[in-house]
Amino acid sequence: MKQNFRFSGTGGQGLITAGIILAEAALLDGKLAVQSQSYGPEARGGSSKAEVIISDEPIRFGRVTHPDTLLVMSQEAADKFSGDCDGSSLIITDSLFVREVRAKDARRVDLPITHTAREACGKPLFANIVALGAVVALTKCVTTESLERAVLDRVPKGTEDANRKALAAGYALAENN
Amino acid sequence: MSRVLLMQGNQAVVEGAIAAGVRFYGGYPITPSTEIAEGMAKRLPEVGGKFMQTEDELAGIGTVLGASLGGVRAMTATSGPGFSLKQEMIGMACSAEIPCVIVDVQRVGPATGQPTSPSQGDVMQARWGTHGDHWLIAVSPSSVPECFDLTRRAVELSEKYRCPVILLMDEVIGHMRERIELPDSYEGLAAARRKQPDVTPEDYLAYADTDGSKVPAMADFGSGYRWHVTGLVHDETGFPKGTPAATKNSQDRLRTKLEDHEDDIVQTEHYRTEDAEIVVVAFGGAARTAYEVVDMARNEGIHAGLFRPITIWPFAERAVRELAEKTQCLLVHELNCGQYVREVESAVQGRASVRLYAKYDNEPATPDELLAEIREAEKTIKGAK
Q1: Predicted-complex ipTM score
Q2: Which of residues 292-331 of B touch A (CB under 8 A)?
Q3: A20 to chain B: which residues are within 8 Å by CB?
Q4: Is it true that domain B270-384 has CATH number 3.40.50.920?
Q5: pLDDT by residue (tens digit) across B154-202?
Q6: Please, are residues B346 and B354 in contact by the beta-carbon 8 Å criterion?
Q7: Residues of chain A that touch chain B, judged by Cβ-Cβ distance less than 8 Å
Q8: First and final CA of chain B: distance in angstroms?
Q9: Looking at the complex, does the CB of residue B181 fall below 8 Å from at least one CB of chain A?
Q10: Of the candidates B4, B176, B292, which has its C-beta nearest A27's C-beta?
Q11: Contact (CB<8Å) B178/A20
Q12: What percent of chain B has pLDDT over 90?
């Protein structure tokens, strides 16, 4: 089974990090994963995209042409990166930033991701981890044990508790949806 | 013991270099190769090596050649604009036979081009970027584990044949992260050092072919052996000598020291080519699409295969000729407007048809796009029958 993920938003939202963490969690689960990314020449701002493919079989082509799950955290990213979704895709939006997506027949879940990060962890900075929690709760693509381990392996020392809270907030967002 | 990691291609190059015994890096960071400079800056001090960020790319390769003359395995990394700047010194390394590894993580060109997008537009520059007749080696990885292996191999080849080795990467592989299994210890993985002189300093001739291998022994600067390094045509002593005979001797040795060892240098991979009627020829990031498409085409009943040059230069002429004898169509897929295809055509010489699928729009080809090209090739073959 092969699952295609695309995380997109604005440079600086931590979506490439989120992609790396998801791929690492998949490896911890004993699966194979490839992560790729594209971004503009800017260090911040501009649209940013991270893609992850999780599979039991070797992954050759490493980019996503048809996302099973699309996370969009800016309207610009929604305009640019939702066109190749269809009725079989799940689109998760950050309701603070995204009004409309291009694939009208996709299953759409609007979640206040950045708002929740600010409420639960005090900073919008944790939005990527909240989003990861929501993605994993909605797709079950990796185990929550592996996800937590992958998050804690990747984040700066001293931020572990805030990141655990962010994950829990993400799970809750998805479950209460 | 080994560890399983999710790693980026550029990071795997760093680990390969450290494992191979590279202990000097000089360069100027540039997208999409910057993670190599960052990684070397972090890793080299941990193993007693030196990292130097120079004022520009020219100085970067200058320091690499200097370090190598001092006996240290040395490397630099760059992208197209920096690769252009380094060409003069690459010629110097060819002429003076100074081992070094130059990583070029290609971006879209020419000039500043498109920094964050993939391309394979430097494939001819890797061969002919510096002026004059010259001979060097280029290798191109298609996966993150292969970035580790081929970086080690690049260092080994440069030491063994005393020439620059280009690790020709593209953004697809440089920035992709995937699973890699690395040994816990790099002990025993260092590349064999260049051949050392077996004569006294008084009897040492820096460019004498003493064992018939065409590769002279190279003494480290500071070891008591004195020799002259120049980019002028030189004789066995290393001092300039531009007579017709000396010039021809020098060129013949530089050429045949690689030509005579092509069996050792040239590596290729065949994927499902045994009974293939259409063989995709692709390397680096472009090959990733091709593997997948070969399987898709086979599922449709098309006899497709993939031929992947791992060594890009010297060109795998014999392997391509042999392939052309037993297949009907070679479909060259490269991320540029069509460069390597000319080499393939010249090796095939009409034995099979050669088609080109050139992709040069900032994106790697999707499997569907390449599959459409294979279907077209299939139609042409069937139509011709």
Answers
A1: 0.94
A2: 292, 295
A3: 6, 177
A4: yes
A5: 999 999 999 999 999 999 999 999 999 999 999 999 999 999 999 999 9
A6: no
A7: 20, 23-24, 27, 32-41, 59-63, 65
A8: 55
A9: no
A10: B4
A11: no
A12: 98
Q: pLDDT for B216-251, tens place per residue?
A: 999 999 999 999 999 999 999 999 999 999 999 999
- What is the crossing angle of helices A15-28 and A127-139, to 10°? 40
Each domain of chain A, given as residue ranges in start order, spans: 2-109+135-158
Indicate yes or no: CB of B179 within 8 angstroms of CB of A36: no
- pLDDT (tens, 9 = 90+) of chain A, 177 residues, equals 899 999 999 989 999 999 999 999 999 999 999 999 887 666 566 889 999 999 999 999 999 999 999 999 999 999 999 999 999 999 999 999 999 999 989 999 999 999 999 999 999 999 999 999 999 999 999 999 999 999 999 999 999 999 999 999 999 999 988
Q: What CATH code would you report for A2-109+135-158?
A: 3.40.920.10
Provide the number of CB pairs (under 8 Å) joining chain A to chain B: 55
DSSP string, B27-77: E---TTSHHHHHHHHHHHHHTT-EEEE-SSHHHHHHHHHHHHHTT--EEEE
Which residue from B minimizes the CA distance to A36?
B176
Distance from C-alpha of B22 to C-alpha of B44, rounded to nearest angstrom: 8
Chain B residues with beta carbon closer than 8 angstroms to that of A83: none
* C-alpha closest to that of A9 among A60, A75, A54: A75
Q: What CATH number does the domain located at B2-183 have?
A: 3.40.50.970
Provide the 3-class DSSP secondary structure of residue B199. coil
Looking at chain B, the domain(s) classified CATH 3.40.50.920 span 270-384
